[in-house]
Design a protein that fits this description.
about 450 residues, alpha/beta, Rossmann fold, 2 domains, 14 helices, about 30% helix, about 25% strand, elongated, binds S-adenosylmethionine, SAM-dep_methyltransferase, methyltransferase, S-adenosyl-L-methionine, NNMT_TEMT_trans, SAM-dependent_MTases_sf
Length: about 450
């Protein structure tokens, strides 16, 4: 087999599982020890030290290998291993069933146990991994649903080591493979990738298998394009004999799919809809607007607001009226628009007549990088209120960050005086400004106080 892209058929014919294991996985006496110890170190850090965990992890293109799952089995309740090739899936099954002919992974198992603090626990570790791998499935990353014909609910984590570069013939194919694989991750979940970069082949026995040539930025861009935010990305160096592969660099990347369910909230509108004939909801982030639309359209995947709806109904005297309340709010929200509070007209390109009331909860402090930006954002938002109308603000005070999933978002530090000055400067008279003490865990935010402010726009002279 020489030159060109090695596609699915050639893989089936030429990929010799035993040769692959002998060349790459003879840990302790092989040419690839540095490479694989680097990868296992990183996986240990990711799953154990950084604590990425969840219910289900899918390993895409597992091949006959289990080394990549040794740390993951401590953090996930179930693992689904997958590969395109039957011979690889069979080899994995052999190990799961303790077939005497199965490959001996103990050197790698012991290495990971040592990272975890006790090299002697390798037999327990093997048992744990065997119990955690619940299925070994066929997959083809070139399909929109790589597990076709199986359709599964997106999972907390997808891992893939040294597969996506070998399954893509060129950059466009690589980008689409990334989207296919990324579609298996649920919002808030992680994608963990190990790929050989700046390479174009690897050997299995006498057969050469192609890899798409990738610069690290190409991988990162494909990941972002698939809808992920990169949490960390690192290039690992390891020298491998050219007779095995011209891969001296490996990218280790952790990315997260933004959690859409934290998106635009409706709790702040539950009382509002009793006092206003129409509400215009706005958000800067497209997926937040989409999430709100889901709730408005009663999409079964929409966030469940009923506990908060019931709470407000109870305040209003009848907790049982929560379904009516939801209907009322759905009818009152007339539009969901994009807005950007840093623009002079936050609803640009739309121009609306100033309205009776503008409400904003936990928004400006998250959207503004410094105090001058905050003061001007307040004027921008204030310009939407007509003279005599009200501005109602809920603002996180003395906060510098908040977390959504694993991701930290910065927040502008504001004390009550800064808020008051900005509100007055925007042409409002403060009617009330109350401080509410919060007891948020530091793992969520460092803000411990919330300001509740009602202001009225001064009538023009
Ligand atoms: C270099 S091996 C890596 C195996 C394993 N992840 C590891 O780290 O040892 C590449 C794997 O990609 C799989 N593969 C190739 N094309 C594929 C495709 N279209 N879909 C899924 N897997 C594929 C091969 O069967 C092979 O097991």
């Amino acid at each position: 087999m020489e030159g060109g892209f090695i596609g699915n058929e050639a893989y089936q014919q030429h990929f010799k599982t035993k040769d692959y294991l002998k060349t790459y996985m003879s840990f302790g006496s092989g040419d690839c020890d540095v490479l694989f110890s680097n990868v296992m170190d990183k996986l240990h850090k990711t799953f154990i030290t950084d604590g990425i965990k969840g219910k289900t992890l899918i390993d895409i293109g597992s091949g006959p290998s289990i080394y990549q799952l040794l740390s993951a089995c401590e953090s996930f309740q179930e693992i689904i291993a997958t590969d395109f090739l039957e011979q690889n899936r069979e080899e994995m099954q052999k190990w799961l069933k303790k077939d005497p002919d199965a490959f001996d992974w103990t050197p790698m198992v012991k290495y990971v146990c040592q990272l975890e603090g006790n090299r002697e626990k390798w037999m327990e570790k093997e048992e744990k991994l065997r119990k955690t791998i619940k299925q070994v499935l066929k997959c083809d990353v070139t399909l929109a649903n790589p597990l076709d014909p199986l359709v599964i609910q997106p999972v907390s984590c997808v891992l893939s080591t040294f597969c996506l570069e070998s399954a893509s013939k060129d950059l466009p194919a690589h980008r689409s493979v990334m989207k296919n694989v990324g579609s298996l991750v649920k919002p808030g979940g992680h994608l963990i990738l190990v790929l050989a970069v700046r390479t174009n082949y690897y050997m299995v026995g006498q057969d050469k298998f192609s890899c798409v040539y990738l610069e690290p930025e190409m991988v990162e861009n494909a990941v972002k394009d698939a809808g992920f935010e990169i949490v960390c990305s690192e290039v690992l160096q390891a020298t491998i004999p050219l007779a095995i592969a011209n891969a001296q660099e490996t990218i280790f990347l952790v990315a997260q799919k933004p959690n859409k369910t934290h998106g635009p909230s409706i709790y702040q509108l539950l009382s509002t809809c009793e006092s206003f004939r129409e509400i215009i909801a706005t958000d800067f982030v497209d997926q937040n607007q989409e999430e709100m639309q889901k709730w408005l359209k009663k999409d079964p995947e929409a966030f469940d607001w009923t506990p908060m709806v019931k709470y407000v109904c109870q305040l209003e005297g009848d907790r049982e009226k929560w379904m009516e309340k939801e209907e009322k709010l759905r009818k009152t929200i007339k539009q969901v628009l994009k807005c950007d509070v840093t623009l002079a007209n936050p609803l640009d390109p739309l121009v609306v007549q100033p309205v009776t009331c503008v409400l904003s909860t936990f928004c400006l402090e998250a959207a503004c990088k410094d105090l001058p930006t905050y003061r001007s954002a307040l004027k921008n938002v204030g310009s939407l209120v007509k003279p005599g109308g009200h501005l109602i603000f809920v603002v996180a005070l003395e906060e510098t960050y908040y977390l959504v999933g694993q991701r930290k978002f910065s927040c502008l530090y504001l004390d009550p005086g800064m808020v008051e000055d900005a509100v007055k400067e925007a042409g409002f008279e403060i009617l009330c400004f109350e401080m509410l003490d919060m007891k948020f865990p530091l793992a969520l935010t460092d803000g411990q106080r919330v300001g509740f402010l009602v202001a009225q726009k001064c009538n023009e002279a």
